[in-house]
Batch of 2 targets.
Target 1
Amino acid sequence: MPAIHRHHGFRFVIYPNDHTPPHVHVYKAEASAIIDIETLEDHDVHEMRLKDLRRARQIVAEQRESLMASWREFHG
């Protein structure tokens, strides 16, 4: 699945066959996390530094409308 957004080394992905609530999978190098688009809560964090996780949440907050539009394209 191609990234729907890239920013400062982060890659944000929404998978078309994924489940609710609306969320993005965030990747940076070998690290990953899942961030809820609406609440900005993170889940399944793997090897992502706290500094990067905070920055990823900030990017999701800044791009919330665009990310939600992408979620709706995939999930209705």
Note: The chain has a mean pLDDT of 94.
Target 2
Amino acid sequence: MTYRASVDKDTCISSGRCVADAPATFRFDGDEIAEAAPHHPGLSDDALLGLARACPSGAIRVHDGAGAEIEAG
């Protein structure tokens, strides 16, 4: 299954960890809040879950192909 990521902009603290760890997948918007890059290259589902787990504020959300949120735990 291919997961996709989104960022809860109200929760993001702009630590930059996701941008540093996966610059093709995450970037900063004009307000320096992280966002998932459009048409980003596919990371493995495990890699995407790992990035979500590593987010210091828990702002990265992972969704399955049907749009249901996956608990990154």
Note: The two ends are 18 Å apart (CA to CA).
